Amino acid sequence: MRNIVILTGAGISAESGIATFRGPGGLWEGHRVEDVCTPEALTRDAALVHRFYDLRRAALSTVTPNRAHEALARLDREWTGKLLIVTQNVDDLHERAGARRMLHMHGELRSALCAACEARLPWSDALPPGTVCPACGAAALRPDIVFFGEMPYQMERIDEALSCADLFVSIGTSGAVYPAAGFVQLARQYGAATLELNLDPSDGSAWFDETRLGPAGTLVPAWVDEMLSANRT
Ligand code: APR
Fold first, then answer.
1. How many angstroms separate the CA atoms of 202 and 213, rounded?
2. Is 184 left (phi over 0), alpha (psi -120 to 50) or beta?
3. How confident is the model at residue 233 (pLDDT cuts 50, 70, 90)?
4. Mutation probe of ligand 1 site: the residue of 20, 89, 213 with most atoms within 8 A of C-beta
5. 177 lines ligand 1 (CB under 6 A)
6. How many Å apart are CA 168 and CA 185, to the nearest integer?
7. Positive or negative CA dihedral for 97, 20, 101, 55?
8. In terms of CB atoms within 10 Å, which end of the chain has fewer, N or C?
9. What CA–CA distance (Å, rounded) separates 196 from 211?
10. Which 3 state secondary structure label does DSSP give 27?
11. What contacts 70, CB < 8 A, 6 or more positions away?
């Protein structure tokens, strides 16, 4: 196993206290997706959409990375082959645990995007509608979040990483949302082995060579130990 691609979802942050989307009491249960996570919602009620992400951005300072994030950061530091963590999450827990070889395919809470000039800038505070973009002067800053119906970020880079992966690992995702849910099929077509670490069976479990069920905080450190000790022999 030389080259690894790891896909993470809301389940990896659950033990840090961040609600998942589709579980009991899930984030979307509080809101209709159409009301807070679509381009139409932003046009119809920008204040509601901005406030939804302001609350989630503010909550980041109340949570910390868990043992799963820390284990992946250790793998990132010590793995001598290629490695890429593709997260669907918009929290910053992978970075705060020390992960470097990673990307956010659905955007990130701690970033603002200018709808006019597409400049991206780090953002930690509230982001009211009509905030002026420092790059182009338009009052067009929005949350740097990929809404339903928009194209996820860095898809070419993800496909390139999958094309040379020996192992694709999916952690804490329901396999409900494409294109991420299709990565396991792409990985198989490219000849990679596939492993799923999840609390419950996901919509895509049938596509994986192996599925281990349990909390990420337990499964991920054990899997990383396995990979690093096998890699040393
Ligand atoms: N450890 C491991 N897995 C867990 C844990 C845990 N402690 N807790 C929950 N899970 C699993 C659930 O079993 C579920 O399969 O995490 C998954 C969470 O699924 P979702 O809530 O659908 O989150 P996710 O798969 O990341 O959603 C994908 O959909 O709403 C959009 O853009 C949003 O990025 C998100 C995307």
1. 10
2. alpha
3. low
4. 20
5. yes
6. 10
7. negative
8. C
9. 5
10. helix
11. 97, 98, 221
- Max CA distance (Å), the chain: 58
Backbone angles phi, psi at 197, to 5 degrees: -120, 115
**How much distance in Å is there from the Cα of 64 to the middle of ligand 1?**
18
Q: Which pLDDT tens digit goes with each residue over 24-82?
A: 777 766 777 778 999 999 999 999 999 999 999 999 999 999 999 999 999 999 999 99
Predicted TM-score (pTM) of this structure? 0.97
- For residue 175, how far is the Cα from the chain centroid? 12
The tokens describing 179, both together, are 């294109």
User: Which among 181, 10, 155 has a CA at the least distance from the CA of 84?
Assistant: 155
CB of 173 shorter than 6 A to ligand 1: yes
Alpha helices for the chain (secondary structure H): 11-14, 27-30, 33-36, 39-44, 46-59, 67-78, 93-97, 155-163, 183-189, 216-232
Pairing mode of beta strands 102-104, 4-8: unpaired
The Cα–Cα gap between 128 and 93 comes to 24
Strands ordered across the beta sheet of 107-114: 120-122, 107-114, 141-145
Q: What are the catalytic residues?
A: 106
For residue 179, cis peptide bond before it (omega within 30 degrees of 0): yes
Question: Rounded to the nearest whole angstrom, what is the distance from the C-alpha of residue 176 to the centroid of ligand 1?
Answer: 9
Q: How far apart are CA 76 and CA 219, in angstroms?
A: 17
